[in-house]
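Before relying on records like the one below, remember that each one covers exactly one chain. Contacts with other chains, cofactors or solvent are not represented anywhere in the record.
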Amino acid sequence: MGIEQRYEMHFVEIGLDADHVHFLIQSVSNITPSTIAQTVKSITARKIFEIHEEVREMLWGGQFWTSGY
C-alpha cells in the first residue's frame, strides 16, 4: 500500500530544483501540515536508504531531509 492510500493524502504536484524538492499535497482536514511533512519525509528517506544503502554514507550526518519543511 502506498503513502497516498495509507495516509489519505494525494500528491497533486512534485517539483525538483538543484538541491531540493517541492510537494503539493492534498489531504483530509484532520491531518496537520506538520504531520504530512513528517510522514512523507520519514517514508521516503527510509525507502531511499533501503534501495540505495550507499546514499546514507554520502550525506552529512546520514540525514536525508533537513529539519524544516
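The longest strand covers residues 9-16.
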